[in-house]
Design a protein that fits this description.
The chain has 25 helices and 19 strands. The strands form three sheets. Strands 4-3-5-2-6-11-1-12 form an eight-stranded parallel beta sheet, sandwiched between helices. Helix 19 runs parallel beside helix 25 and helix 22 crosses helix 23.
Length: about 625
């Protein structure tokens, strides 16, 4: 079988990944691949999957956690089609809400959009849907005619942004606007596509998966599934099943129902609000949070009440013209509360805010249904260690799973990894003296780096505590991430940091934030990442519930729910520095716990970190050629 590859030849480690992917696909197995940044894993896995799918008739799904990553997969197909004239059709597929062009509906809150959209379509009130689908013979005939005109304008590799723009600006034969629903047009394209690039949600949400596969006339058993950034999958699937309800949401929902004169439903939610307040009073005497049982809340509310509330939410949005409704949030919570999945139920109070959180504990409730039934799958990430953790958490069939670790493809001389065991952010050793000593260590290191540096802290509290002692000590301007920064503010901060790389800036941020993952600092725009401490999650009841559940199920609760996720975060931070073969830079892990055996299991075999008490000297020597 010929393997189609868009470049002259794959690199050594890339070829190993391609061979492993093909082995898994041919054997109808699941490949777990730790594949470092820069290896070219998208090209390697898609080349193997598409080559096999073209010959054997499978369909390939490439799943990513972010829409911004879709274009990379489309680029691979463009290259293959150009080089081999394969005619592979591919679509960058996103949810209906992200493609909507209805002026009001497109602004609707996520939780209410799909119900409101379904109602408009059922009533034949959405002209965009009617233009793309139609209901009478004549309407269907016209819809097909205009869709064919759109198809003729598209390349074989369709971006959702390109499709949305074309559908938004479509015209009829007389040149007047005739806009078509981009989502419905995308469904028709997906039906004929060999590759579908989409979010995890499309396959792992059971209801969405069933509808989606039905619309494109596909079965899960015929699908080759590639999961990119798969270290995120467990947490994403837990979040998908979880839900939160607060007293403020209930109060707003009651007001909305009163505006509609839905007196009976408003009274039901008043009772629910009183029940929540009473539960908080009884459970939270002298503490911030407590576990509750399923039968301690919502005993009088059932699925039928959720359905009534969802209808009321739609009525409210239509009547008020508003894009969201708290009624719908209540309905969603009631639905989740009565689900059969494994949950921790936690009530908490902060000042006047009472919150009940339904926290899912088992991602396998969703993942197993997919991975047990797909033709084959590849789960890959640059921070996938330890691989056996993901086998457990996702409940993968061990007899069907292949685990492989691939080496860093970049020149080892271009990277310096240091572990500095002189300091720590360990909770029982935190004090002002330790903060000042951490700052002194940072000062010595940063002042020897001839360019941009990011310092990652476990929390904003630690960032503030240490940065106090750094004031006036650094030879570069300092930028600082703040709590609850708006996305536009964070983007401006990053632009300033990147644009001034020739001068050299220091950016202080947190390891669990958006600075640490999914953002590239190309070339010389980042020379060093310093990870202060270990970014362990807050030890709250939610975390404790996960630890207890994983301990009971796997005998590895502390590792899987607490230690390993923290090291994965730290390695994500370190991975911001070297993004191509020509990049040079350092990663410094500033905490004595990084040398402990429990943490070393997450480091790649070829990581080659140097343990040192004199990091400033090694940093200066590394950058001396500059």
């Amino acid at each position: 079988m010929q393997i189609f590859f868009r470049f002259p030849r794959p690199r050594v480690e890339q070829k190993k990944l391609m061979d492993a992917a093909l082995e898994a696909i041919r054997g109808e197995k699941i490949l777990l691949a730790h594949a470092p940044t820069g290896l070219g894993k998208t090209d390697a896995t898609l080349s193997a999957a598409l080559s096999y799918a073209l010959e054997q008739g499978q369909r390939v799904f490439f799943l990513t956690p972010k829409i911004s990553q879709h274009e990379i997969a489309l680029d691979v197909v463009r290259g293959l089609n150009k080089k081999f004239d394969l005619g592979i059709k591919a679509i960058d597929f996103v949810g209906r809400r992200y493609m909507c062009i209805d002026p009001l509906l497109s602004k609707t809150d996520f939780e209410g959009f799909y119900e409101l959209c379904a109602r408009k379509r059922a009533r034949e009130e959405c002209i965009y849907f009617n233009n793309a689908r139609g209901s009478t013979y004549r309407q269907i005939e016209l819809a097909n005619f205009y869709k064919e005109r759109i198809f003729s304008k598209l390349s074989q590799e369709v971006s959702h942004l390109e499709l949305r723009s074309i559908c938004l600006n479509a015209k009829n034969k007389r040149g007047k606007p005739r806009k078509l629903c981009p989502y419905e047009v995308a469904i028709d394209i997906a039906n004929d596509s060999k590759l579908i690039v989409c979010d995890y949600y499309h396959l792992f949400n059971p209801k969405v998966r069933k509808r989606f596969l039905s619309k494109i006339n596909e079965t899960i058993s015929n699908c080759i599934v590639i999961v990119d950034e798969a270290h995120n999958l467990n947490e994403r699937l837990l979040s998908l099943q979880s839900a939160t309800l607060t007293n403020r949401i209930l109060e707003k929902a009651i007001k909305e129902l009163k505006q509609l004169a839905y007196t009976d439903l408003a009274e039901e939610l008043k009772k629910l609000l009183a029940e929540m307040s009473s539960l908080a009073k009884n459970k939270l005497s002298g503490q911030k949070e407590a576990f509750i049982k399923k039968d301690e809340f919502l005993n009088d509310m059932a699925t039928k009440d959720a359905d009534l509330l969802k209808d009321a939410a739609l009525d409210y949005m239509e009547a008020s013209g508003k894009a969201k409704s708290s009624i719908n949030k209540v309905a969603r919570f009631i639905e989740r509360w009565n689900a059969k999945e494994k949950f921790a139920r936690i009530i908490s109070r902060k000042e006047r805010l009472i919150k009940i959180k339904l926290r899912a504990l088992d991602a396998a409730q969703l993942s197993k249904r997919v991975f047990d039934n797909v033709h084959s799958a590849i789960l890959m990430s640059g921070t996938m260690l330890p691989l056996e953790m993901h086998v457990s958490l996702l409940s993968l069939d061990e007899g069907r799973t292949i685990m492989r670790e691939f080496s860093d493809p970049f020149p080892k001389k271009n990277r310096l990894n240091l572990i500095v065991p002189t300091r720590t952010t360990k909770y029982n050793e935190r004090n002002q003296k330790e903060f000042s000593l951490i700052a002194k260590e940072l000062e010595e290191i940063i002042n020897r780096i001839p360019g941009n540096t990011i310092v990652f802290f476990p929390s904003f509290d630690l960032l503030e505590s240490v940065s106090f002692y750094l004031e006036g000590k650094l030879n570069k301007p300092v930028l600082k991430q703040r709590r609850r920064m708006h996305s536009s503010e964070l983007a401006a901060l990053l632009d300033k940091f990147r644009d001034n790389y020739s001068r050299g800036y220091v950016l202080l941020g947190v390891a669990s934030g958006s600075l640490a993952e999914g953002i590239d600092y190309a070339g010389d725009k980042l020379l060093a990442a310093i990870i202060v401490g270990i970014p362990l999650a807050e030890m709250d009841l939610e975390r404790q519930a996960l630890i207890d559940y994983y301990e009971e199920k796997f005998g590895r609760g502390w590792h899987y729910a607490y230690l390993y996720p923290a090291i994965i975060k730290a390695l994500q931070c370190a991975g911001r520095v070297i993004r191509s073969a020509n990049d040079r830079g350092i990663a410094v892990f500033l905490d004595k716990r990084y040398v402990w055996k429990n943490f070393r299991n997450c480091f790649p075999k070829d990581f080659n970190a140097i343990k040192t008490t004199e990091p400033a000297y090694l940093v200066e020597r590394f950058f001396r050629p500059f």
